[in-house]
Specification:
Elements: E1 8-9, H1 16-24, E2 28-29, E3 45-49, H2 54-63, H3 67-70, E4 73-78, H4 80-86, H5 89-95, H6 97-102, E5 107-110, E6 124-128, H7 131-135, H8 139-143
Parallel strand pairs: 1-2, 3-4
Antiparallel strand pairs: 4-6, 5-6
């Protein structure tokens, strides 16, 4: 029951035809690439981020790095647990520190794999951040609020502002 005008979309790969069609449906297109740095602004918010790069999730978590904001979010996207299993912990903590820090405050439920797209969408999960779990995290988890830069990141899976993505 979310009105289309309250659904905000951005994909740097949208063609002009796709943007026109989405606009005709009444959906709101973000005018520029926010690099995943979208705040929930106190409202319950669903982020549909299927098959996105880790930096987008990390940026989203950074922008909303508080118990109040995170507990208002649900993310449908790549499994955080899967990221942690596939990356060396030192790389996860160095390059994607907000994902690493929130793992113990996250509930995650895997969605069933689609037989036709098993190789692409096989790692999709629903993530939510229960307030009681976030409040159990150590206080120092919330103290470091530096914006991610990804200087040492070998495989940055994000289209940054000005890189073919507005």
């Amino acid at each position: 029951q979310v009105p289309p005008s309250r659904c905000f979309l951005f994909d740097p790969a949208f063609s002009e035809l796709e943007r026109e069609a989405l606009g005709a449906l009444g959906l709101s297109l973000l005018p520029e690439n926010e690099e995943g740095k979208r705040g929930v602004q106190g409202s319950p918010t669903l982020f549909y981020m299927v098959h996105c790069g880790k930096a987008l999730y990390n940026n989203l978590l950074w922008r909303n790095w508080s118990v109040g904001a995170l507990s208002n979010m649900v993310i449908i996207g790549n499994s955080f647990k899967g990221m942690a299993e596939r990356l060396l912990s030192r790389i996860l903590e160095r390059d994607y520190s907000y994902i690493a820090k929130v793992l113990k405050g996250t509930e995650e439920a895997a969605l069933p794999a689609h037989p036709r797209y098993a190789d692409t969408f096989n790692d999709t999960s629903v993530h939510w951040f229960p307030m009681h779990k976030l409040e159990e995290l150590p206080a120092e988890v919330w103290e470091f609020l530096e914006e991610p830069t990804y200087r040492e990141c070998d495989e940055l899976e994000i289209i940054r502002k000005g890189e073919d993505g507005a």
